[in-house]
Amino acid sequence: MATIVHEFDNTFEDPQKRPPLVVGDHSFHTVTEAVCRINESPTAPALWWIIFVGGVALLANLGAMIAYLFFTGVGVWGLNNPVGWGFDITNFVFWVGIGHAGTLISAVLFLFRQKWRTGINRFAEAMTIFAVICALLFPGIHVGRVWLAFYLFPLPNQMGMWPQFRSPLLWDVFAVGTYFTVSLLFWYTGMVPDLATLRDRAKTKIAQIGYGIFALGWNGSARHWHRYERAYLILAALSTPLVLSVHSVVSFDFATSQLPGWHTTIFPPYFVAGAIFSGMAMVITLAVPARVIYNVKDIITLHHLDVMNKCILATGSMVGFAYITEFFVAWYSGNNYEWFTFKNRQMGPYWWSYWIMFTCNVIIPQIYWFKWARTNIPLMFVISLLVNVGMWFERFVIIVTSLHADFLPGAWDTYSPTWVEYLTLAGSFGLFFTFFALFLRFLPIIAIAEVKGVMPRKHAHGHGHGGDGHGHLEAAR
Amino acid sequence: MSSTTGTMTATSAHPKTHAKPVSMVLHGLLAEFDDDHKLVAACKKVRDAGYTDWDAHSPFPVHGIDRAMGISMTKLPIFIFFCGALGTATGVIMQWWMNAVDYPFLISGKPFWSLPANIPVIFELTILFSALSAVIGMFAFNGLPRHYNPLFRSERFKRATDDRFFISVLASDPRFNLNSTRSLLESAGAAAVERVDDTSESEAPPRLFIWAHAILLCLALIPIAMIYRARNAPIDYPRLHVIFDMDNQEKYAGKQAANPAFVDGRAMRLPVAGTVARGMLRQDPALTDGRVGDRWLTVFPANVTIDDALLKRGQNRYEIFCAPCHGFDGSGNGRVTDVARERGLGWVEPKNLHDEDVRLRPVGHLYNTVKNGIRTMPPYGDQISGESDRWAVVAYIKALQRSQRAAPGDVPTEKKDELNNRK
Fold first, then answer.
1. Range list of H helices, A142-266
2. Residues 6 or more apart whose Cβ sits within 8 Å of residue B134
3. How far apart are the CA of B40 and the nearest CA of chain A, in angstroms?
4. Among A363-367, A464-468, B266-270, which is the least confidently predicted range?
5. Residues A27, A36: contact at Cβ < 8 Å?
6. Which class for B307: exposed (0-12), middle (13-18), buried (19 or more C-beta within 10 A)?
7. Interacting residues of B353 by C-beta distance below 8 A, sequence separation 6+
8. Alpha helices in B142-206 (DSSP H)
9. Averaged over A333-357, what is the pLDDT?
10. Do B120 and A164 touch (CB under 8 A)?
């Protein structure tokens, strides 16, 4: 009774008809049921255990790698003098970028009244939080003497000296710190009504107390909903410029330096587009298995996946355009060092990383011009993985190929990561998937209250169907 | 609990049973509706009847209910605006005070305080403060968290977060009357109307609970107090260093006492007898110093072979280290010299290497000049390191000198054509 799956194609492209956002013959109660039973079921699906156990194993490996790093020093990584940033900052930028799609879905699409976001926003926001946690890890551990990491924050050192606010690295601390805080607030605020639902359905004492504490006594009061909706709208309006600023500030870490390959004004928009691109791919990577494991295909419909694939096509093409523009400007600038750096990216010692990046990010997503590709689930899963590989390599290309050969050939060197760095990268996925598995098990993975607001209605059409939804309510006044 | 349901026919089955009866008071009436349109219509009726202390409850925000209930626009945005402005001010003042007042940073001669570089942090703090105030303000204005609510005593009310819609009218409302309010709600289309009771006294937590918390709090203060004492009390033994960090190394220095570990009592070991520092081995003074006894070498040392490779290396070193002053052709017109002349600086002109005295000097003397300097010329032995590089420079200088005084007959026959063809 909980899932009423019936095949209905809501991916049609008729501008006169809005596709329904929830398919199947659902009532409010069956939506609650479909989501809550995931948390209420006494046993978890086998695939969940695989994700959880794998995640915990990789997380333990991450702990071991970090302990080894702390007790031995950054020499356990393969960094050298020109290449002072390697896997550490590549991973940092990669994970921050992943987070951006979550905020795009929850904030930007909310402002644009894109109602399809409701099916996936909880999911995507959780992804944001966990990705930003993974990202925050790397600047923290890459400082070498980790006990001095307090100097990342505006605290004086032993000489009474404050951090220097002209440094983009410090801007980064504020940008990523604010981003994490605001994302967490946004996620939690959105979840309070659903936690109240779980609280009211809870059968065991522990669940009642646990969900009860975090539901804050939410009782669905219309006066509360009024302020809640206002606060939610304002949070969305705050998060939208925030998400654009965060990856812009991350790009300033590079763009404000003098290094050829980094010193370009295209970086902020190009980084933001890339971030959304990789994040959308990550949402697909997570949503495709989740909707199968938990049978929420009626709520995360094919239409949702279709729209996200369109976003991937758009942002992937933007990123491709940026690669080409960058290359053109390097040539057009007449600057030998700049031009050398770009030729070196394509044909130098790291040529393979450039071409992996270009293929995965620019060429492969072009298949999404075709609808059969956008609605083919195994294909989109594979492409989403490839896009993430490509976006990881984009950061690697930007960081390593620019650093390893800058101005003076005498100062060049190549970088090759050590086993510690590979395992640390793998460990960060462990951190991510452990958190994600716990989220899937214990928290409402779909914004139940929001989905109820966009459900197609039998007797009076809700706002999911446009105009006449309000007519009925008006008549009631 | 069910002992005091009064005149009402109790519809709720209370989940909790207390050991001793608790006196209950009327909290209000709860009406249930099965869809949101009926809720909106009923709200309008309750509003028009003049009630003030009442509320509607729904699993999702129902559109049009604000007007139907007469809810006026919240002041929350104004609160958020001022908190955001506080964030902006914090960003400005913090950065100005830290970098321009308390510890001024002079970076590339830039002003201590200039806005552009400080905008990102100001922006982020504005967003951070606004977002925190939006969430904290929203919950505070809503009177949340409030984990206990008399409405939660109703089993029926559990569906308010699932699929049912409710109106609660509280007994504290001046217009509240058990019968008339009930019939109003019923006539407004309620599927069911239920009386909600509340306990008359608040239930205090058990004594043991409070004492346990007080004791735990006191225990938690002990480590903090110990750390505070350890950091501030004078002690006569070295402080505990968790991380040595090269500031605190294990060493014997500073003890001002004989080291018992060695027979001679020294803390620092002497090098093994006959140790030679790197680059200090001088077995062949002709090669390393350009002299034999007191006499400068007049020919190149035996193990320096003059060939193309050596001259090329000499040219390379010469053009890096010598040409800036002596010029590429050795005539003393290097770039540094030119600049010094243009600016009229008090500059002792570098020697023209084609002067008679330089030409006639023995090669050993030239070598010594390269290595140790002469008059105002500083030594270049450290920059041009290694004997062979210095001899290469000397060989290149000799070649330069010869080139400036060459006769046509000096040109080798195989190079003649090249010379003649030059315009």
1. 168-201, 205-215, 222-255
2. A185, A231, A234, A235, A238, B76, B80
3. 7
4. A464-468
5. no
6. exposed
7. B326, B330, B331, B332, B397, B400, B401
8. 178-187
9. 90
10. no
Is B390:B367 a contact under the CB 8 Å cutoff? yes
Buried b (16+ CB within 10 A) or exposed e, A97-116: bbbbbbbbbbbbbbeeeebb
Mean pLDDT of chain A: 85
Distance CA A152, CA A257 (A): 19
Categorize the per-residue pLDDT at A332 as very low, low, confident or very high, splitting at 50, 70 and 90. Answer: very high
Maximum pairwise Cα distance, chain A: 80
For A212, the token pair is 């009860």
Min Cα distance B287 → chain A (Å) is: 29
Distance separating alpha carbons of residues B397 and B310, to the nearest angstrom: 12
Give chain A's domains with CATH numbers: 28-156+168-476 (1.20.1630.10)
Q: Compute the nearest-CA separation of A427 from chain B (Å).
A: 26
Q: How far is residue B134's CA from residue B128's CA, in Å, rounded to a whole number?
A: 10
Q: What is the CATH number of domain B286-407?
A: 1.10.760.10
Q: For residue B192, which phi and psi values (nearest 5 degrees)?
A: -160, 145
Q: How distant is the alpha carbon of residue B340 from its chain centre?
A: 45
Average pLDDT for residues A279-308, to the nearest whole number? Answer: 84
What are the residue boundaries of the structural domains of chain B, listed by start?
Answer: 24-202, 204-233, 286-407
Which residues of chain B lie closer than 8 angstroms to A165, CB-CB? Answer: 95, 98-99, 117-118, 121
Q: Find out whether B124 and B87 touch, Cβ atoms under 8 Å.
A: no
Which ipTM score applies to this complex?
0.87
Query: How many angstroms separate the CA atoms of B353 and B396, rounded?
Result: 11
User: Measured between CB atoms, which of A28, A252, A460 is closest to B37?
Assistant: A460
Taking phi over 0 as left and psi of -120 to 50 as alpha, with beta for the rest, B189 belongs to left
Q: What distances in angstroms separate CA A45 from CA A41, A51, A150, A435, B102, one per listed residue?
A: 9, 10, 42, 17, 58
Question: Which pair of tokens denotes residue A140?
Answer: 């923290």
The dihedrals phi and psi of A261, each to the nearest 5 degrees, come to 95, -20
Q: What is the pLDDT along chain B (423 residues), one digit of tens a residue?
A: 333 433 343 444 444 444 556 678 888 888 888 888 888 888 888 888 888 888 889 888 888 888 888 888 888 999 999 999 999 999 999 999 998 888 888 888 888 888 888 999 999 999 999 999 999 999 999 888 888 888 888 888 888 888 888 988 888 888 888 888 888 888 888 888 888 888 877 677 778 888 999 999 999 999 999 988 888 888 887 777 777 667 777 777 666 778 888 888 888 888 888 888 876 777 787 888 888 888 888 888 888 888 888 999 999 889 888 888 898 888 888 888 888 888 877 778 888 888 888 888 888 899 999 988 888 899 998 888 888 889 999 999 999 888 888 887 778 777 777 777 776
Q: How far apart are CA B9 and CA B29, in angstroms?
A: 12
Which residues in chain A are contacts of B161 at CB distance < 8 A? 193, 196-197, 199-200, 218-220
A32–B144 C-beta distance less than 8 A:
no
Three-state secondary structure call for residue A135: helix
Secondary structure letter of residue A400 according to DSSP: I
Residue A298 identity: D
Give the distance from residue A192's alpha carbon to the nearest chain B alpha carbon, in angstroms.
11
Rounded to 10 degrees, what is the CA torsion of A293, A294, A297, A300?
-100
Q: Token match 């009310």: residue?
A: B157
A336 touches chain B (CB under 8 A): no
**Closest residue on chain A to B69 (Cα):** A222
Test B121 with A165 for CB contact under 8 angstroms: yes
